[in-house]
């Protein structure tokens, strides 16, 4: 986040008191904070008991070997049973679980009874392919109901899913499959995006070339595009399901049985496989989904716009809403296809009551103007949520006014892939809202803003966001790399009582409300997606034309941050292309290596990079250039003229 937006955040004084009408009917009140403060572990135990346990737990938290926590460890449950069978047995089988709308306009509404039947069948089909407890299954799919069915079928078997976002390249997919040693891949022929079919199966084929741990690939027919076929390895989803038994009894698994791995960017080039387990994860997903979104499962229609390839899709499309028996909308495509009002049309059509989306989407709608949403009836909306990056107060107020009709609370929810579920958020109908602030820890979670030396900041002041006590949905590790887990998240404050270090800067105001200020490390946040500067730099230097590369996240009106790269072309290649061609080739190269979301917005060809005497690239200075600011202190540079040369060159090109 740039200095400008931090300043505007901290001078924001608008306040929105809870609407009495909302407060009268809310599902969670201030007493939750009191309950949790009086007995934190007892509070989480109560929330966990809202789930169905095959074997009830006795112990709540085992923190005898920090930072490796165990929650509800002597209990057993089945995550899929909690999301499905339980609701059918309670008489809610006819309630719609998912209203799904495809990008081309096809749609399906699936009840809890139907979804349960589909998952049972899929569990049998996967078991027949050899998937059992602890096995890894990679899921590389569009946002279609089969993706949810596949995730829940894996969970039902006590196996572990690793969902890979459908926009990732074959190389990224291969790295994730290899790291987890997946046995099965579930994919589709293709999916719809911006009015066209994009291939998925073909990317899986490329990712699996050569040696692989993968024994089978199950393919859903969605795009209707042609696919190559490897006999003996590949199976059509429909055929596998047709052959599978209908009945499947959900077995209880230990609460600490792994549920999924989800890869996320860190400060080094290699993505980390964040590991989540079952009982604690489901407890906090369900509790926060219920409280933060004021869920009335019998009447609400919830819509979280995230792709299932991100953690928000895991916790607030799949596990939270389904554990709570909610009715939700799932949409396959992009917001502007076939017209820029598509989201608002969907809200009108399905009478969506709760919308959960990202600031980058809100800002792009703001740019298009209020006339577009105003053409639709959005009066069903009664609550709005935001996630993924800091929301600037202007976007927050626009969201409330234009989308929410001026009287709809907005909850800004801070959390991470690693935290598994919401950690900081207002409670609607309880908290007086401040646009731009994520506000307070949810009941049962303890957050401290610390200085580098581990002391607490004196409000109003800024520091590093940390979590003081273990929480149920916390990550349990980095797949295959316990040292990286300790080093990345715990080492920094291990002498201050094992506090979890989130990597975010935050300010705390006089009232104790938290204002997130963005990442403090080399992780960028582009449209709410985490990208590592190092990962993109290594993709760039992986191109034979490139000698050196430096990548920074520059602030961007729409996407929050944008990828900006500074590249030195090898002397031997300079004559091969003109500048424009180099830029196009390298942008395409990054998209190919990582995925289209990582494609740099700008690439500047330079002949030097600013480095300290110890050889560290000074990204701070490059960010100044990329954001068009005066260049900061250059005195620690080995060669102080470098920045002048770079900025002269950029100005000449502009
Ligand atoms: C859920 C999710 C996590 C990073 C996190 C922070 C940023 C997320 C935010 C927010 C300010 C919010 N972030 N929500 N920053 N306000 N409400 O996004 O997970 O993809 O792992 O990203 O996103 O920087 O550290 P993930």
UniProtKB/TrEMBL annotation:
Its EC number is 6.2.1.1. It catalyses: acetate + ATP + CoA = acetyl-CoA + AMP + diphosphate. Residues 31-83 form the Acetyl-coenzyme A synthetase N-terminal domain. It comes from the Bacteria. It is an enzyme of class 6 (ligase). The modification N6-acetyllysine is found at residue 616. ATP binds at residues 388-390, 412-417, 504, 519, 530. CoA binds at residues 193-196, 312, 527. The keyword Oxidoreductase does not apply. Residues 89-478 form the AMP-dependent synthetase/ligase domain. Gene3D superfamilies: 3.30.300.30, N-terminal domain of ligase-like. Its cofactor is Mg(2+). Residues 535-616 form the AMP-binding enzyme C-terminal domain. Pfam families: ACAS_N, AMP-binding, AMP-binding_C. Mg(2+) binds at residues 541, 546. Keywords: Acetylation, ATP-binding, Ligase, Magnesium, Metal-binding, Nucleotide-binding. InterPro entries: Ac_CoA_lig (IPR011904), ACAS_N (IPR032387), AMP-bd_C (IPR025110), AMP-bd_C_sf (IPR045851), AMP-binding_CS (IPR020845), AMP-dep_synth/lig_dom (IPR000873), ANL_N_sf (IPR042099). Acetylated. Deacetylation by the SIR2-homolog deacetylase activates the enzyme. Belongs to the ATP-dependent AMP-binding enzyme family. NCBIfam families: Ac_CoA_lig_AcsA (TIGR02188), PRK00174.1 (NF001208). PANTHER family: ACETYL-COENZYME A SYNTHETASE (PTHR24095), ACETYL-COENZYME A SYNTHETASE 1 (PTHR24095:SF14). Catalyzes the conversion of acetate into acetyl-CoA (AcCoA), an essential intermediate at the junction of anabolic and catabolic pathways. AcsA undergoes a two-step reaction. In the first half reaction, AcsA combines acetate with ATP to form acetyl-adenylate (AcAMP) intermediate. In the second half reaction, it can then transfer the acetyl group from AcAMP to the sulfhydryl group of CoA, forming the product AcCoA. This is Acetyl-coenzyme A synthetase. The lineage of its organism: Bacteria, Bacillati, Actinomycetota, Actinomycetes, Micrococcales. The gene is acsA.
């Amino acid at each position: 986040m740039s200095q400008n937006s931090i300043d505007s955040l901290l001078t924001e004084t608008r306040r929105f008191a809870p609407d009495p009408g909302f407060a009268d009917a809310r599902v969670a009140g201030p007493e939750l904070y009191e309950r949790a403060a009086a007995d934190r572990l007892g509070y989480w135990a109560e929330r966990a008991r809202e789930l169905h346990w095959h074997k009830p737990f006795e112990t709540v938290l085992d923190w005898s070997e920090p930072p490796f926590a165990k929650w509800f460890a002597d209990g057993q449950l089945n995550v899929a049973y909690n999301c499905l069978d339980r609701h059918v047995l309670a008489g809610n089988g006819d309630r719609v679980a998912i209203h799904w709308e495809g990008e081309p306009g096809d749609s399906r509404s699936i009840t809890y009874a139907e979804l349960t039947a589909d998952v049972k069948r899929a569990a049998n089909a996967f078991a027949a392919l050899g998937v059992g407890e602890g096995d890894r299954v990679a899921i590389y799919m569009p946002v279609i109901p089969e993706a949810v069915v596949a995730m829940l079928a894996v969970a039902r078997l006590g196996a572990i899913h690793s969902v890979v976002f459908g926009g990732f390249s074959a190389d990224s997919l291969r790295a994730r499959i290899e790291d987890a040693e997946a046995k099965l891949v579930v994919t589709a022929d293709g999916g719809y995006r911006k009015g066209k079919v994009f291939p998925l199966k073909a990317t899986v084929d490329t990712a699996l070339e050569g040696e692989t741990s993968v024994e089978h690939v199950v393919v859903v027919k969605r795009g209707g595009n042609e696919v190559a076929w490897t006999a003996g390895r590949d199976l059509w989803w429909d055929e596998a399901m047709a052959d599978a038994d209908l009945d499947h009894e959900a077995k209880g698994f230990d609460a600490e049985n792994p549920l999924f791995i989800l890869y996320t960017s860190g400060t080094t080039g290699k993505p980390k496989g964040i590991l989540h387990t079952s009982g604690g994860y489901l407890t906090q997903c369900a509790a926060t989904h219920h409280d933060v979104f004021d869920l009335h499962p019998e009447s609400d229609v919830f819509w979280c716009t995230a792709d299932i390839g991100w953690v928000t899709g895991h916790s607030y499309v799949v596990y939270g809403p389904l554990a709570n028996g909610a009715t939700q909308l799932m949409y396959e495509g992009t917001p502007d296809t076939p017209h820029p009002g598509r989201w608002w049309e969907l809200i009108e059509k399905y009478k969506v009551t709760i919308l959960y989306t990202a600031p980058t989407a809100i800002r792009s709608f703001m740019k298009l103007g209020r006339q577009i949403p105003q053409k639709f009836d959005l009066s069903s909306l009664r609550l709005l949520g935001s996630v993924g990056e800091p929301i600037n107060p202007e976007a927050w107020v626009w969201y409330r006014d234009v989308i929410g009709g001026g009287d709809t609370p907005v909850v800004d929810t801070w959390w991470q892939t690693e935290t598994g579920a919401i950690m900081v958020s207002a409670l609607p109908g309880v908290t007086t809202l401040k646009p731009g602030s994520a506000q307070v820890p949810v009941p049962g979670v303890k957050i401290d803003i610390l200085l580098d030396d581990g002391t607490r900041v004196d409000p109003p002041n800024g520091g590093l966001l940390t979590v003081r006590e273990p929480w149920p949905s916390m990550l349990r590790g980095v797949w295959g790399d316990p040292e990286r887990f300790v080093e990345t998240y715990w080492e920094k404050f291990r002498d201050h009582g094992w506090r979890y270090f989130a990597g975010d800067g935050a300010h705390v105001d006089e009232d104790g409300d938290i204002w997130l200020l963005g990442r403090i490390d080399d992780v960028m946040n582009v449209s709410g997606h985490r990208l590592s500067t190092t990962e993109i730099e290594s993709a760039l230097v992986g191109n034979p034309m490139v000698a050196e590369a430096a990548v920074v996240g520059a602030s961007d009106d729409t996407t929050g941050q944008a990828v900006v790269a500074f590249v030195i072309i090898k002397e031997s290649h300079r004559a091969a292309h003109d500048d424009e061609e180099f830029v196009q080739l390298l942008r395409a190269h990054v998209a190919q290596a990582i995925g289209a979301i990582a494609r740099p917005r700008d690439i500047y060809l330079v002949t030097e990079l600013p480095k300290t005497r110890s050889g560290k690239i000074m990204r701070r200075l490059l960010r100044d250039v990329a954001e068009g600011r005066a260049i900061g202190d250059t005195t620690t540079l080995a060669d102080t003229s470098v920045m002048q040369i770079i900025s002269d060159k950029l100005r000449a090109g502009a």
